Here is the input.
Amino acid sequence: MSDSSNDNLEQAKQKGKYIRTIRSFVKREGRLTKGQAAAIEKCWPTMGLEHPNGMLDLTQIFGNDNDVVLEIGFGMGKSLVEMAKSAPHLNFIGIEVHRPGVGACLMDADEAGISNLRIFEHDAVEVFADCIAEGSLTTVQLFFPDPWHKKRHHKRRIVQPAFVESLRSKLKIGGVFHMATDWENYAEHMLEVMQAAEHFKNQSQTNDYVPRPDLRPLTKFEQRGHRLGHGVWDLMFERIS
Here is the structure.
């Protein structure tokens, strides 16, 4: 987008005009269960993060200087809570726009008694731009994002050069962008984008995909896929500069 286009967009927003922008997700409100609603009410004051509050002070938020793992689009949060429970020496931030998923994640986190997890209910692109300091993350996780399988919708896929570059600045040197998908075409798209991205190194021994690392829990959905012969592709790219 040109500078003039950016200026026009900002001017329109300031005048209160609605500007439709391409989203990498479809926001499905769904219906909260009583348990999910209760979990949000109980846990949001301590575990919730608000986009309007701006840049995060991670040391203040978590009360320590532990490495931070951020997951984009955690769904119902089962694997994210499992990871946080299994790695108390790490801090975790989850981003999700689906409110029932936020409620389910908070409910499971509360039951697990974990204190090293914080949650955004907001668009990941805006959170990265406004709330995450440069060089502050050890890992960024993107597991099973919407594949937008129709070719005319591929521009909606979140793994695009501009987003990868914005994400790179948030990772520490040596930090890792870990992706996983069960759509082979999207895996190929991810690999193409990442291979072309400067300042990243593929951690694959074969310069393509990596075996599922133990740190990424095997989901019920994935187990079912394995039984049916479906593939899953993991990609891990390290920031080297």
Remarks:
- The longest strand covers residues 171-181.
- The first helix runs from residue 3 to 14.
- Confidence is low (pLDDT under 50) at residues 1-6, 16-22.
